[in-house]
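Reminder: ligand-aware prediction takes two inputs, not one.
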Amino acid sequence: MKPITAPQLKAKKQAGEKIVMLTCYDATFASVLELTDVDCLLVGDSLGMVVQGRSTTLPVTVEDIVYHTRCVARQARQKLLIADLPFMSYQPSVETALVNAGRLLKEGGARAVKLEGGFEQFETVRALVRAGIPVMGHIGMEPQSVHQTGGYKIQGKTEEASQKLIQDGLSLEEAGCFAIVLEGIAPETAKKITQTVSIPTIGIASGPDCDGQVLVLYDILGLNPGWQPKFAKKYLDGNRLVFEAAQSFVKEVRQGLYPSEQQEEKESLRLMQ
Ligand code: KIV
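Here is what comes back for the chain with 3-methyl-2-oxobutanoic acid:
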């Protein structure tokens, strides 16, 4: 099977086929997701929160994203692998963006990059695309601007805000983006953007009318300790399952049930093979 490419996503929009993206940060989860029908894997800067335990995505570095992208790329060969450009890796200048996006492809093995921002990123997106780097846009709630917006708030609720987001979508399309993430956008506005642009929109907390949906892997697996974003459906009670597995191990070790003679025999047979 050939890997999914950025231009194929547009064909999916035209065919009315929903696009599915999940975040992924390591080789173990990548090897599982590689066997699923997910279209795209995103090495998101959300890794700052779910992997590194930070309170925002801002401290994530290009090195962090290169490292995690490389881990995912070793196992995810059929998926469109997209890597996030972290905070301040593209905002300072077009040259900075080119150098850092280049690293995500050359060193990380990504096939595309994602960056936050609308029309103000026009020149940067255009330069990246001209350099042969596919770019996914990201508008609406932009976590890298959390200190400016004062929190993670739903965007595009007023007519004026909605029009601005539609213009942002059109700018990103004109600059050459192959798709746009719509994060935390009022569903009616997300629907209008989706109907206005010809490139696919991939929604998160933006209602059902986007061309696709993306969620953070740890959210759908229920791995987060004690909290869960309201919009994210939990398909597994991962936190509890991991806790129970670890506790069972502790119990068996303390009771002298693990390792058992039988298990040791099986293990030595496996090692001899
Ligand atoms: O960093 C991330 O995981 C993201 C998704 C939530 C779209 O940007």
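The radius of gyration is 21 Å. The longest helix spans residues 159-175. We will return to this case in the review session.
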